[in-house]
Structure formats: C-alpha cells, structure tokens
Design a protein that fits this description.
2 copies of one chain form a homodimer.
Chain A: H1 4-12, E1 30-31, H2 42-56, H3 63-66, H4 72-84, E2 91-94, H5 97-115, E3 121-125, H6 130-143, E4 146-150, H7 156-159, E5 165-171, H8 183-192, E6 196-200, H9 212-215, E7 219-222, E8 236-240, H10 242-245, H11 284-298, H12 305-327, E9 334-335, E10 347-351, H13 356-365, E11 368-369, E12 371-373, E13 377-381, H14 389-405
Parallel strand pairs in A: 1-11, 3-4, 3-5, 5-6, 6-7
Antiparallel strand pairs in A: 2-8, 7-8, 9-10, 10-13, 12-13
Amino acid sequence: MLTLQACRARDAADPLRPLRDLFALPDGVIYLDGNSLGPLPRATAARVARTVEHEWGEGLIRSWNTAGWYEMPRRIGDRIAGWIGAGPGETVATDTTSINLYKVLSAALAIATEDQPGRRVVLSERSNFPTDLYIAQALCAERGCELRLVDAPQEIPQALQGGDVAVLMLTHVNYRTGAMHDMAALTGLAHRHGVLAVWDLAHSAGAVPVDLQGADADFAVGCGYKYLNGGPGAPAFAWVHPRHADRFWQPLAGWWSHAAPFEFTPEYQPAPGIARYLCGTQPVLSLVALDCGLDALDAARPLGGMDALRAKSLALTDLFIALVEERCAGQALVLVTPREHAQRGSQVCLSRPEGAYAIVQALIARGVIGDFRAPDILRFGFTPLYLGFEDVWNAVEQLRQVLESGEWQRPEFNRQQAVT
Amino acid sequence: MLTLQACRARDAADPLRPLRDLFALPDGVIYLDGNSLGPLPRATAARVARTVEHEWGEGLIRSWNTAGWYEMPRRIGDRIAGWIGAGPGETVATDTTSINLYKVLSAALAIATEDQPGRRVVLSERSNFPTDLYIAQALCAERGCELRLVDAPQEIPQALQGGDVAVLMLTHVNYRTGAMHDMAALTGLAHRHGVLAVWDLAHSAGAVPVDLQGADADFAVGCGYKYLNGGPGAPAFAWVHPRHADRFWQPLAGWWSHAAPFEFTPEYQPAPGIARYLCGTQPVLSLVALDCGLDALDAARPLGGMDALRAKSLALTDLFIALVEERCAGQALVLVTPREHAQRGSQVCLSRPEGAYAIVQALIARGVIGDFRAPDILRFGFTPLYLGFEDVWNAVEQLRQVLESGEWQRPEFNRQQAVT
C-alpha cells in the first residue's frame, strides 16, 4: 500500500488537512524543519504590521496599557499552558529557553538543597541539547554543585539512587535522535528518590502530548519558535508547578518580576506566583508573532486537538520510516529514532557514516528542507499542521534520487556554512 | 525672546529638522516620552514586513544564513558602538538590560574579587533604576557580596575609599531626575581606588555624548527601545572593554556564547571576545526593528552627529525650563533636573507636591505625552531627532492650561492604571 496514490488518498481523508492553508509555505518546498523554525502562519504578517503601525506607531507608550503589551507574557503563557498540561497562571512566555532554564534550574537547586542539604548533583544526559548542559555547568559552578551526565537513558534509574542527586534535568524529546522520554515514569522515579524533575519541552510543546500536571513535574521550559510557530527567535516559556511558585526567587530578579514594578522601590520584593520568573521588558513584536503561532495551533482544537495531531504525526513518521526502508534500501541509512510510538517525538533521524551533511544540502537544493546535526545525523521534522502524506512520499523520492544519483558528492554540497 | 514666533524661527533654521520626517508621529501628539519608548521610524514597518513575509515566510530556516539573522546581535552591536564610544567587536545587541546587567556585573565581580579577594561590595545609588538594584541584590546574594547604596551622588567619592568596594555600578543619566554623571571622572576615581566601573546607558545611548573608551569604563549595558527607537521591548545591549573580554565567562552560558555552537559539544567552551555575552536565540523581528531605529539615528551623522543632537537637545530642554518658569510660574512646579548642561541628560523633570500623576494624565488627554514617575515627578523627554522648538512651546502651553484650568483634578485623571 506504499504508493503515491495511497498517500494522496490519506491526505484526502485527513481531517487536519485544512490547517495547511493557515501557513504560508513557499512553492516547491517540502518543509521538514519545523522542529528548528516553524513556518509563517498566514495571519502573522497582518498582525505584526498592525502592532508596528497602529499599536506602536499610533499608540506609542500608551499601548503598554491599551494594547495589552504588558500582559502578553502571562496571557501567552496561559495559551501555551493548554498544550503542556498546565493550569492557568503557571506559565510565562519570556526570554530564551537558555535563560528560562537558568531561572528554573536555579530555583530547583535552591529548593532541593535547602530541603536536603547533602544533595549537590544535577543529573542529565550527555546527549541533552548542549545549551542545557552549558547552563547547568555554569549554574553548578556558581552554586558549588556538580553536573553529572549519563551516556544512555537506561542509566538514569541507577544514577538517581546515589542519594546525592538534587535535580533531574532532561529534555523530553531528544533534539538529535527524536527519542522521547516517559515523563511521568521518570518524574515519579525521581520523586521516589527525593529528586526534583526539570523538563525541557523544546521539541515537545505543540508536537506531542505533554501533561506536566499529570506527570507531577516540578519545572519546565520550552521553545516558541519550533512547533509553536512563533517566528525566528520567538520568546521561550517557563512553567513552575504551583507548589514551588511562591517558595523561591531566581537570581534574574529584574523589575518585571517585582510585586509592584511601577512603584520603583529600591528593595526587591518578588511577585507572587509565576510573574517572578519574568525579568526585563519583553520584545513585543516577537511576542505578537508567537501569539499568532498559537492561533494556528489552536485551530487544531475543534479538529481533535493533540490527539488528532499526535495520531497524524505518528502516521507521517511511520510512513517516512517505511518509505525510506523500502525505497532507499542499501543506501547505508540507519534509523536512529525509536520505532516504538511511545518513545518517538515528531521527527525521524537517520544516520549515515558518510555524507550526512552533503545529503541534507542536496535535499535542500531540491526543496526538501531538513537538518544536519553533527556528526552524522539527517534530521526530518514532521508537523501535522501543515504536512501531508504526499509530502512524505515526495520527500523520500527526492532522498532516493539524491542517493542513487550520487549528486550529494558535488563540491557545492560539501561546503560547511556557519549555521545549519 | 520666548515667543511662539521665535520658536518657529528656530525650527526653520534647525539643520536637524528634516529628520522628523523619518518618524511616523501621530497627528495631534507632542511626544515627550521617547525616553520610555521611542516612536516608530517610518521605514520600520516595511522592513519588518519583509523579514516576516520574505525572510521567514520564504527563506524559512535558511534565513539564519542567507538573511544574516545569525550575525545580527554582533552587527547591530557594532552599530550601537558608534554612539557610545566603543570599538568594533566590543558590543552585542541581545536580551534585556536587566539580563545584560546580570552578565556584566557577574563578570565584573568575578574579576574584581579574583584580583582583590577582600573586596565584596557593589556600590550604587539608592536612586538608581530599580531593576539595576534588584539584579545587583540578587547577584550579591548569589556571590556572598553586599550591595551598598549612597543617597546622593556627592557621597560616591567618599564611599569608594573604604577598600572593600569591588564594583561601582551607576546609571549614567538618572531615570527620574535626568541628572547625568561625569562618567570619565567617576570611572577614573573608581580606578584610582581599585574599583571597576559598570555603567547603565539606558537614558544615554543615542541621547547624550558617551565615550566608553575615552572614559576607560569597564562594562556597560543599555536599552534599545528608548533613544535608539528600536520598538517596544527591543533587545538591549552589552559592552565589555577589550581588556576584560576574554578573561571571564558569565553564568548565562547558553549556546550562542559557545566558541562553536553548531558543533553541539557537551562541554562549554566560551567564544572569544564579546560573543560570550550572548546566551540563547534572539528575537529576530525585534532585532530587525532595532536595526531600523539605528538607521534613523545614523541619519543624523551627516547633519553633525552627536554634537548637533546634543546641542539641539540642550536648546530644547533649556527652552522648556525657561518657558515653564515663565508661563507656569506660581504653579508649585519644582525643577528637579540640573540646570548645568554638563549634568543634564535629554529630559526635564518637574516635581509637584500634589497632582503629578493626574497632571500627566490630563496632558496625555491633550496629546502631550510625558511620563509620571512615582512619587511626584512629571518627566518629559526631548529627542532632537523628531522634536522641534514649536513643540516645546505648545507642550508648555498645554501644561499651563491644564494647571490654570484645574482640569487635572477631574476624577478620570486620578485613576491609577497598572502601567504608566
């Protein structure tokens, strides 16, 4: 049944198909990189223009009140909450993922080490996204703590037992492999060992089912510019379980986190709840674009919401895997992403001992935009909001042609660029 | 000579007058709040639209390379450098002022306390902008240091002599009073006492002459959305003297500060130079608007640059002071901003024992947009890029009418809003 015709039939029967029209996808492009930068929702351009020309241009400083700018980090946080299993008032859209991780990891370490002074270890995976490790290294250096890394997820249960672990810091879906952790199981295990759980949802929010409250997680951060389609460098988000919200401050104690920022008092008094995870004035134009990205995601709600998105995402990645194995057999591609649905995010990664970078470049030249991730990974993201089954067929067909023709060996596909 | 006719004559003779046309100022508004949020440059809307529709919509992830997004924090930093007396490669546009202060104060404390371990004090003014004090309080708590505040600028020389001061942290132009420090003198004094100098240029960059290299300052931060006209919540900037650039890292050690971010190595290796003051992915739409704000400022270069801007700024604030004293005499307004040019920023602040908030609201209702700053300050910013002498005349005339009519006592002008 793996025919182009069958793929077209599945698109015709897909209840999520109309959502594709919400996005401005260029002609001739199959976009398998929405896990790096989500595409432009059609409505975003007009909304950003209105913010620039009307709210800023006409409203000027008054728009902090009249256009709701001041409330945006909390209002948009509450919108994200609906996609990550959080309640109202628990999430804030602000700053970058790296900075938000510094805030929540800082609070987690403070709580953990106050409750159990002997614990000084942050446990994570060596394969975690590097910025998470860098931030944790830096904070551990500040606090006299230790970042301890395991080489494989299976080592986590053993590593939690040492009695010196304060915080388990994991990324829910691995950026290189697409492998997904069982958040509820690992959080439960961490708690049974007296360890707090901090989750990075960069590749999860809007992509896979996330239930922070259901998993009883402690803290989370995530990204606005991937599956939330908030635009390049969109503000990130931070979530704090209500049981921790009022307990500790974080050291990025800027005026937006103050209980009464416009009283301009010299003494810091943290705001109650999630607002204390704010810091300085936020980039309004970029927040507005993130708001539009959430509009596009929310359009999936009446069509089945995350259940429907997840079912289609798995169908797309299943199809991609099956087509690659059938049509690119003998091309030395190795599936890196787990086959088990429960362990798979919304991307498929292939490794190849030779030419991974160049093959991705050759595909991009043919309009199939994926990602290379060092040292040998071809990474393909599948976003059910705007991708169809025929897209998957066509992407694999281009991959097959690139491999069989050997065109990826051309010099122009082997020049490394600064950013990929 | 303080006549409307004389003001019009000065506008007619003003070589900077054509710059006003670069800004989209609403009809009927005299905007004296560019020190809180600069107005919209006319060119910004089209440039942001191009970034949204073409660079993001068509270019997608490729635009990190092809549209120069990745270089923007450093490229825009270098543009700002030209207005603050910094050399190339010393400034970066990123994050918020609060977060950048955390970075540079962190580095300053690390350097100062390594070189002179007995020094644990950050010295500042109680009247500094609160977020600076909050960030310093938080960082001092992390580091076991002390934030010590003086009540008046005259106390700074004495306070520097204690032998325990590590860092002097000042805002160049005070946000409430408009009083300007002598950066070179205070930095020199600090250095003679073995103290590093960190300057906040929020109300200085683009507004008054700043020469960080000439003053031999150590670190600086500043704001993108005031006199740089970068739009609401525009990214801020950080500057580091080259002698410190490679010496210490800062704890917000995200991947953008890594020597090779796209090698995705688990170990943190800070980039050489100013790039290590970056952290996470930056809000591109807001950076692009900041770039446009700098275009508008740079348009003053062939017309005399900062010398011409400063001369006109002082002429505008001199005129405002003189007109208020002449035409609003007996109205209990007290000049807070220094009369001495060398001690004045680009704003004039008046205090009034009663009604300051309501008077500002009544002025706003008449189209004269200034700011209230608690507890009793009427704050008026004068930006020579787009304000003229007739504007000053008209603003004072409206103030006179508001005061003489008593209309500020109406209930609608006395309801406090969340943000002002």
